[in-house]
């Protein structure tokens, strides 16, 4: 059965006001959210995996949206944490900034589900109206509502 955003979104794993201003620290802050739900066995090891992957190939997409991720044995199911930065966080060597950061932990065996999930998130965030709504959402609950509503179309 295909995974849906509603299945993996949790208000405790969304930070709408990231404090960090650097990529590594922002990733640490977002990945720290997984600890609230204990969805990752070793968050520090997962952070290391994500940083290695990010150094090798930036996950910054269009419109200041990044999709850092790692395929890992540290999770049993796909899990997602989100960070938002109004000012944006410098994300690559060109100084381009990420404002919406979707961190995905993926079990090795669920590659297809991961590709579907990231494709869905990319389509949602490419839409200017939906992206602006996500950037303006005042609460984690409303952020989730916007994502789930957009995903149903």
Question: What's the short version?
Answer:
This protein has helices at 5-8, 23-32, 43-56, 111-126, 128-136, 140-151; strands at 14-15, 65-66, 69-72, 79-90, 97-107. It contains 6 helices and 5 strands, in the order αβααββββααα. Helices cover 42% and strands 20% of the residues.
Determine the mean pLDDT. Answer: 91
* Radius of gyration computed on alpha carbons: 14 Å
Regions with little confidence, pLDDT below 50 for 5+ residues:
none
**Cα distance, first to last residue?**
18 Å
Largest β-sheet summary: 5 strands, mixed
Briefly, what CATH class?
Answer: Alpha Beta
The helix fraction, in percent, is 40-55%
Following the backbone from N to C, one meets helices and strands in this order, namely HEHHEEEEHHH
- Estimated share of beta-strand residues: 15-25%
Compute the number of strand runs.
Answer: 5
Q: Can you describe this structure?
A:
- With 153 residues, this protein is of the alpha/beta class.
- It is 42% helix and 20% strand.
- A hairpin with a 6-residue loop joins strand 4 (79-90) and strand 5 (97-107).
- It has a single domain, classed as Mannitol-specific EII, Chain A (3-Layer(aba) Sandwich), CATH 3.40.930.
- The chain is built from six helices and five strands, in the order H-E-H-H-E-E-E-E-H-H-H.
- The longest helix is centred in the last third of the chain and has 16 residues, at 111-126.
- Helix 2 packs antiparallel against helix 3 (43-56) and helix 5 (128-136) runs antiparallel to helix 6.
- Strands 1, 2, 3, 4 and 5 form a five-stranded mixed beta sheet that branches.
């Amino acid at each position: 059965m295909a995974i849906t955003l509603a299945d993996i979104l949790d208000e405790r794993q969304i930070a709408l006001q990231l404090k960090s201003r650097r990529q590594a620290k922002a990733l640490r802050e977002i990945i720290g959210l997984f600890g609230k739900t204990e969805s990752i066995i070793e968050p520090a090891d997962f952070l290391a995996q994500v940083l290695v992957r990010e150094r090798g190939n930036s996950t910054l997409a269009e419109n200041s949206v990044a999709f850092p991720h790692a395929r890992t044995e540290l999770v049993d199911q796909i899990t997602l944490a989100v960070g938002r930065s109004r000012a944006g966080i410098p994300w690559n060597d060109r100084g381009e900034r990420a404002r919406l950061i979707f961190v995905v932990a993926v079990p090795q065996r669920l590659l297809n589900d991961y590709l579907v999930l990231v494709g869905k998130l990319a389509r949602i965030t490419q839409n200017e109206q939906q992206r602006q709504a996500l950037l303006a959402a005042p609460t984690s609950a409303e952020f989730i509502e916007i994502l789930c509503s957009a995903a149903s179309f």
